[in-house]
TrEMBL record:
<dbReference type="GO" id="GO:0002161">
    <property type="term" value="F:aminoacyl-tRNA deacylase activity"/>
</dbReference>
<dbReference type="Pfam" id="PF04073">
    <property type="entry name" value="tRNA_edit"/>
</dbReference>
<protein>
    <recommendedName>
        <fullName>YbaK/aminoacyl-tRNA synthetase-associated domain-containing protein</fullName>
    </recommendedName>
</protein>
<dbReference type="InterPro" id="IPR007214">
    <property type="entry name" value="YbaK/aa-tRNA-synth-assoc-dom"/>
</dbReference>
<feature type="domain" description="YbaK/aminoacyl-tRNA synthetase-associated">
    <location>
        <begin position="25"/>
        <end position="142"/>
    </location>
</feature>
<dbReference type="InterPro" id="IPR036754">
    <property type="entry name" value="YbaK/aa-tRNA-synt-asso_dom_sf"/>
</dbReference>
Length: 157
C-alpha cells in the first residue's frame, strides 16, 4: 500500500519533505519501532477518542501511555477510546492500527503530546503496517500546525 490518500494530499498541500521507511509487517507501535529500528520515543502513535460531541485524535510517542485524565482536563471533554469499527469508518484509507497523526486532515481536532516534539525528527504510520513516514521536526511541526500541543502521556516503564 502506498501512502494513505488523505495523508498524501495533506503533506502535498503543505509542501512537506519526508522519506519513507519500509519495515516488516507489524501490528503494534512498539513492534513497528523495533522492526524499523527507530526509537520508540520518536515514533508517533495516534489514538482516536470520542464523546457525545464527536471524535478527537491524540498523538503520543509509541513508548508512552495516554494519560486520559490529563487530556480530558485539557479538552474539557469526557473522552473514551473509540471502538475498532469507528476507527475503520473515520480512517477509511488506512489499515486498522496504522493511522497517521494528521487527523485534522480527516476533519477532527488533533492534540499532540509535547514529549514527541522535543526530538530532531519523527516517524509515523503511512496508513499501512509496512511503511513509516520519516521527517525532520521542523517539517512535522509545519504539518501539525493545526494540532493543539499538551502534556497527556507518560512513558511506559
Amino acid at each position: 500500500m502506498a501512502l494513505a490518500s488523505t495523508l498524501a494530499r495533506c503533506m502535498s498541500s503543505k509542501n512537506t519533505q519526508y522519506d519513507i521507511v519500509h519495515h516488516p509487517y507489524t501490528l503494534s507501535s512498539m513492534a513497528t519501532a523495533e522492526a524499523a529500528h527507530v526509537p520508540g520515543d520518536r515514533l508517533a502513535k495516534t489514538l482516536l477518542l470520542e464523546d457525545e460531541n464527536g471524535y478527537v485524535a491524540a498523538v503520543i510517542p509509541s513508548n508512552h501511555h495516554l494519560h486520559m485524565a490529563a487530556l480530558c482536563e485539557q479538552t474539557g471533554r469526557k473522552l473514551v477510546l473509540a471502538h475498532e469499527d469507528e476507527i475503520r469508518e473515520v480512517f477509511k484509507d488506512c489499515d486498522l492500527g496504522a493511522i497517521p497523526p494528521v487527523a485534522m486532515a480527516y476533519g477532527m481536532q488533533t492534540y499532540v503530546d509535547d514529549s514527541l516534539m522535543k526530538h530532531p525528527d519523527v516517524y509515523f504510520e503511512a496508513g499501512d503496517h509496512q511503511e513509516l513516514v520519516h521527517m525532520s521536526m521542523d517539517q512535522f511541526s509545519k504539518l501539525m500546525s493545526d494540532a493543539e500541543p499538551g502534556h497527556f502521556s507518560r512513558r511506559m516503564m
